[in-house]
Amino acid sequence: MKVLYVTSEAVPFASSGQLAEVSASLPYALRQRLVTCRVVMPLYEAIPQELRDNMRFIISLSVPVAWRRQYCGVFECRYRGITYYFIDNQYYFKRKGFYGHYDDAERFAFFSRAVLEMLPYIDYKPDIVHANDWQTALVPVYHDLFYSKMEWYYGIKTVFTIHNMHYQGKYGMELVEEVLGIPAESRGLVEFDGCINLVKGAIETAHKVITTSPTYAQELRDPWFACGLDSIIRDRFWKVQGILNGLDVASYNPETDSMLYAQYGDDSFINGKAINKRELQRRLYLPERSDVPMIGMVTSMVPAKGVDILRDILEQLLQNCDVQFVILGSGDWEYEEYFKEMQERYRDKCVACFGFIPELSRKIYAASDIFLVPSRSEPGGNAQLVALRYGAVPIVRETGALRDTVFDSADGYGNGFVFQAYNGGDLLNAIYRALGGYANRDGWRILVKRDMNCDNSWNKSAKQYLNVYKELLAEQ
Length: 476
What we know:
Elements: E1 2-6, H1 18-32, E2 36-42, H2 49-52, E3 56-65, E4 68-79, E5 82-88, H3 90-93, H4 104-122, E6 128-132, H5 138-147, E7 157-162, E8 170-171, H6 175-178, E9 191-192, E10 195-197, H7 198-205, E11 208-211, H8 214-219, H9 223-226, H10 230-235, E12 240-242, H11 269-284, E13 294-301, H12 307-320, E14 324-331, H13 333-345, E15 350-354, H14 358-367, E16 370-373, H15 383-389, E17 393-397, H16 400-405, E18 417-419, H17 424-439, H18 441-452, H19 458-474
Parallel strand pairs: 1-2, 1-6, 2-5, 6-7, 7-11, 11-12, 13-14, 13-16, 14-15, 16-17, 17-18
Antiparallel strand pairs: 3-4, 4-5, 8-10, 9-10
Helix pairs in contact: 1-19, 4-5, 5-7, 11-14, 12-13, 12-17
């Protein structure tokens, strides 16, 4: 079986979030199952030179972008045994940042068309073309409109994964013919609520639609979660399936993680986590205490991640409980300012660090006893998976992938603490329950060891993706 994985970013070449990790991990996991999976992404300016040095130029071609044609160069390299293709056009991709440009619709229309155009030139005919999120949503649309009936492309099936429905690729209808190159008679594929909606087009045309957790698939039938596309999801729910994201357990491994102060496994976590806590306390100028429970959080400081309800109760927690709270992230100004204020007022208990600092995030996971993921919605985040892997017991809200991976330990078999209602009171009650569990040192050790032995690798998820691919190909 041959798969072409189409993404706007992938570790280590370009990353702005979890999509990049998935785009590196899933193809690798599929390769372990003897699937030939290749990845294609844009050749951004930000890709480091040391990675560019390993690329080789394959071919150039001319790609249609509506009524005009644009140069496309194709480069290739190998990484972890996977073949990566890079689509080059300096006008579109030699820029600062990946997204947020005035002509993103045109940039990723070019990329999506180039992916399909290049296939005969590189002599790689995939059985499955797997696109991801709004940036590549036009791949199944273009395939359906322009390529599916061409002899060379016959039999190719398309899969589209929604990693976060909040981002849908919405643009004015005036771009349909002039920029996207979609004929007037087919504009209904991408038209929704008076504008272009690229994700809607992908849902309409892809042979299979995947969401990043089973619960999130069900949630997308609700207007609140689907950001307006609930009716489209309900109408096409027969081809929607939720598959959990896995965790790259080779990268996130406390036994080998060089970013930690001390490595540890499930049989040595007591001493290992104690060293990591002590060293992090020193780095952040917190009192060096082994007995105090450390609560960690690595997140975007935006309401969707639950920082609004955390703000409602954090001061009460710091006033009433003997804890240390450490948060790392960035986001909305009002939340960054709030956490700065809490740090100033509770300097022995609260530290806020700002920015994207991978090595510090790993150290926080390793040092934390408890880890907060109180998200309003969570399509397929991996913070709770990393926390489990590093023995930081997660507190999560029952939504999306959090519901599918963290189960309340009140029954003696779960792996964390779960609350349902999205409010500060329920979050605070879950924290109190976790602190009560932490006070029972023997029981807490059992819980931490259970968490570290949870299997959240890509093995199960890759098998489910492989089954989806096989089912699609059997329909021919």
